[in-house]
Every structure is written in structure tokens, then in C-alpha cells.
Amino acid sequence: MSEYRHILFATDLSPESESVATRAIDLAQRYQARLTLVHVVEHLPVDLPTDIVLPERMEMGEYLVETSRERLTALAERIGVSDAQRLVELGSPKAEITRVAEEQGVDLIVVGSHGRHGLELLLGSTANGVLHAAKCDVLAVRVKE
Ligand code: AMP
């Protein structure tokens, strides 16, 4: 079996994603692979607080990218990988995760999987979308809810 050289951990920045991170970090250590963290800010934030005041001249997308960058840095520090490359992208998670993976020469993407059913299964989760679109290996780590 060939070795993984560059692992991409895709995080939605949820507390549950930290257990998925543990698996990505463990694999990166075993294979002595590079580790990159990516978070994608979606185009249409549905859960945005209505009372936030944007800093002057800052657009909403820019503001969300900026705050996500801070949250991703904080996550990297908490899980002990503050030297790993961190990327924040704007767009659709599935499309951006797979684009970044190709651009960065990633050979393994690690995502969380909720194992949902019904409508969400029909529409497809991010994990499912990445699994079908990625050109490299994808590890879906079951998230305990
Ligand atoms: P989902 O099924 O869409 O809730 O997400 C499953 C997994 O996809 C998460 O555990 C993450 O690994 C990844 N993911 C979901 N949303 C994002 C996002 N906005 N940015 C990066 N990764 C994400």
C-alpha cells in the first residue's frame, strides 16, 4: 500500500469535528504526512445572527471568512496542530474541499459523517458529496451525536 503524503482535514468547526480531527492527526503522524485544515464558508449563511454590526467597509463574505479564520486558528491550537496549513474558502463545501484537495496535491481527505437518514440522505451530506467528487481517497469518520 502506498503511503499518504498530504492529508486534508475538512472541518465545519463544530465541537464534534474535534474527534474527526484526532483521526486525521493520528494518520498524519503514522504516515509522516503533511496536514492541511480547510473550512468552507457557505454562500448563504442561514444561521447568521441578525444583530451583528459589520466593521466599516467590510462585506459579509469577507467578515465571515475573517471570523472563520480566527475560529480555525483556535481549533488548530486546541488540537495541537498550530503549525499545520490552514485554509478558509468561500463557496460550496463539497466543491471547495475537492478543489483544494486537487490544487494542493492531497492524497487523503478526512471528513466527518453523521450517518443521517431520510431527506438528508436523499439530498446528500457533504461527506457523501466529497466521496463522489474527490479524485483521491476519502475517509469518512463517524461522528457521535
Ligand atoms: P455534513 O454531513 O454536511 O454535516 O458534514 C459532514 C462533514 O463534512 C463534516 O464533519 C466536515 O468534515 C465536512 N464539512 C461540512 N461542512 C463543512 C464546511 N463548511 N467546511 C469544511 N468541511 C465541512
Question: What keywords describe this structure?
Answer:
alpha/beta, binds adenosine monophosphate, 5 helices
Summed up, the helix count is 5
Flag low-confidence runs. Answer: none
Strand content: 15-25%
Report helical residue fraction: 40-55%
Determine the N-to-C terminus distance.
33 Å
The dominant shape is globular
Strand order of the largest sheet: 3-2-1-4-5
**How many beta strands in the DSSP annotation?**
5
Overall pLDDT level: 88
Largest beta-sheet characterization: 5 strands, parallel
* Rounded radius of gyration (Å): 15 Å
Instruction: List all distinct small molecules, including ions and cofactors, that are bound in this structure.
Output: adenosine monophosphate
Helices and strands, in N-to-C order? EHEHEHEHHE
Tell me the structural class. alpha/beta
Description of the structure:
The structure is a single chain. With 145 residues, this protein is of the alpha/beta class. The longest helix has 19 residues, at 60-78. Helix 1 (17-31) links the parallel strand 1 (6-10) and strand 2. 40% of the residues lie in helices and 21% in strands. The mean pLDDT is 88. The protein contains five helices and five strands, in the order E-H-E-H-E-H-E-H-H-E. A five-stranded parallel sheet has the order 3-2-1-4-5, with helices on both faces.
